[in-house]
Amino acid sequence: MKNGKRPTRKQKNIIAAARLNPENWLVSKNLPDCLHFEHRLSSRRRVLKVVIL
Q1: H or E segment at 53?
Q2: DSSP assigned state of 46
Q3: 39: exposed, middle or buried (Cβ count in 10 Å: 0-12, 13-18, 19+)
Q4: What is the pLDDT of residues 1-52, one digit of tens each?
């Protein structure tokens, strides 16, 4: 798997809205309908659905 990348400002807002600390998460996939994140230390993965209005 590729290495995770630092989140952009918009992605940081999405992570913070999910009550997570944006400094601890890296972006592994950026899809139009969801974002795949990976924790910096534990490598735990999460998928967040993105709703664009």
Answers
A1: none
A2: E
A3: middle
A4: 678 999 999 999 999 999 999 999 999 999 989 999 999 999 999 999 987 6
Radius of gyration of the chain (CA): 10
Contact present, 28 and 40 (Cβ < 8 Å) = no
Q: What is the DSSP string of 2-40?
A: PPPB---HHHHHHHHHTT--GGGEEEEEE-SSEEEEEET
The answer to whether the beta carbons of residues 11 and 35 sit under 8 Å apart is yes
CB atoms within 10 A of CB 30: 14
What's the longest Cα–Cα distance across the chain? Answer: 33
